[in-house]
């Protein structure tokens, strides 16, 4: 099955009917109306956790977006102890 824009919009309509968020955990902001992907979404809103609204470049409809950040940590030994 190909993923043409009309089919994607129908899918988004279906999700909108049953879920509080139309898209979640994407790498970029995805328009919840038409599926347009906002490249370089990290440039919006100053980089941290952020809630805002914007107008879609593709379909010109307004929607809300949220950036949720998770932190992961790594450690390494500084001294020569234990190896
Ligand atoms: Zn759109």
Q: Mind explaining what this structure looks like?
A:
The structure is a single chain. The chain has 83 residues and is α+β, with helices and mostly antiparallel strands. The protein has one domain. It is built from one helix and four strands; from the N terminus they run αββββ. The strands form two sheets. It has a two-stranded antiparallel ribbon with strand order 1-2. It is elongated, with a radius of gyration of 18 Å. The protein starts with a helix and ends in a 16-residue tail after the last strand. Zinc ion binds next to loops.
Task: Output the keywords.
17% helix, 1 helix, alpha+beta, 83 residues, two-stranded antiparallel ribbon, single chain, binds zinc ion, two-stranded antiparallel sheet
Draw up the topology in text.
Blueprint: H1 5-18, E1 29-30, E2 37-38, E3 50-55, E4 62-67
Antiparallel strand pairs: 1-2, 3-4
The structure holds zinc ion.
Zinc ion is lined by residues 31, 33-34, 36, 56, 58-59, 61.
